[in-house]
Specification:
alpha/beta; two-stranded antiparallel sheet; Spore Coat Polysaccharide Biosynthesis Protein SpsA, Chain A; seven-stranded mixed sheet; 241 residues
């Protein structure tokens, strides 16, 4: 065993967690451009996401979930960049929920499962580790940031129905962290549709804890988001903007 790999008495050891990186969407708001392999500071977008999880000490294995069109390209990228923690590259489903379920089927059992959107390339290892730390305390942890804008609930013909208290509104992000067995139960529910993992867990009546994410942890959905993500990555790397 290498000296750096030996357990040191009195020193906290990393938690053992598996990660599912969900990236099986169709990039429908990118006008036909596949955002996952767009270069950001010369590196494909999805490679930035994988690099953060590769560098997170507590992450032991990763399953990358891709669309049919991207599976082979994804496997080649993993090999090219030497992402040793990526154990499987699997095919996603029709919805995000289906894709996460397939990712769970390919992920070996771990104490914790971290789920992250592949289109959030600005995630950092520190945020992943902080989410896991929060999960050990609360049995769940969802990255989120306080909403900055005033939110309107709007009905027919654009009429405002309600203006909720902004102080109680948070925008959910990923990573989202849950115990392995709890997440398995959440995804075995039938007849329940949800846009994120936390919502499925909430439907079971299990409490979900929010922890402070990062406004830099943006999800790339439009061409404008691509420019923003590259700017953020350039600043992080100390490159000219």
């Amino acid at each position: 065993m290498r000296p750096s790999a030996r357990l040191q008495p009195g020193v906290p050891q990393p938690m053992r967690a598996g990660a599912i990186i969900v990236a099986a969407g169709q990039s429908s708001r990118m006008n036909g451009v596949d955002k996952l392999f767009l270069p950001l500071i010369g590196i494909p977008l999805i490679a930035h996401t994988l690099a953060a999880f590769e560098a997170a000490p507590s992450i032991q294995s990763i399953v990358l979930v891709l669309s049919q069109a991207n599976v082979e390209q994804g496997k080649a990228l993993v090999k090219q960049h030497g992402f040793a923690k990526v154990r499987q590259v699997c095919l996603g489903g029709e919805s995000r929920q289906d894709s996460v379920r397939r990712g769970l089927e390919h992920l070996a059992p771990h104490t914790w499962v971290v789920i992250h959107d592949g289109a959030r390339p600005c995630v950092e290892p520190e945020l992943i580790e902080r989410g896991l730390k929060e999960a050990t305390r609360w049995e769940s942890a969802v990255a989120a940031v306080p909403v900055k804008d005033t939110i309107k609930i709007v009905g027919d013909q654009g009429m405002v129905l309600e203006t909720p208290d902004r102080q109680k509104l948070w925008a959910a992000q990923t990573p989202q962290v849950f115990p392995w067995d709890l997440l398995q139960k959440a995804y075995r529910q039938t007849g329940v549709d949800a846009t994120d993992d936390a919502a499925l867990v909430e439907r079971m009546g299990h409490p979900v804890h929010i922890f402070l994410g990062s406004y830099a942890n943006i999800k790339v959905t439009t061409r404008e988001d691509v420019l923003m993500a590259e700017t953020l990555l350039r600043r992080r790397e100390g490159l000219a903007v």
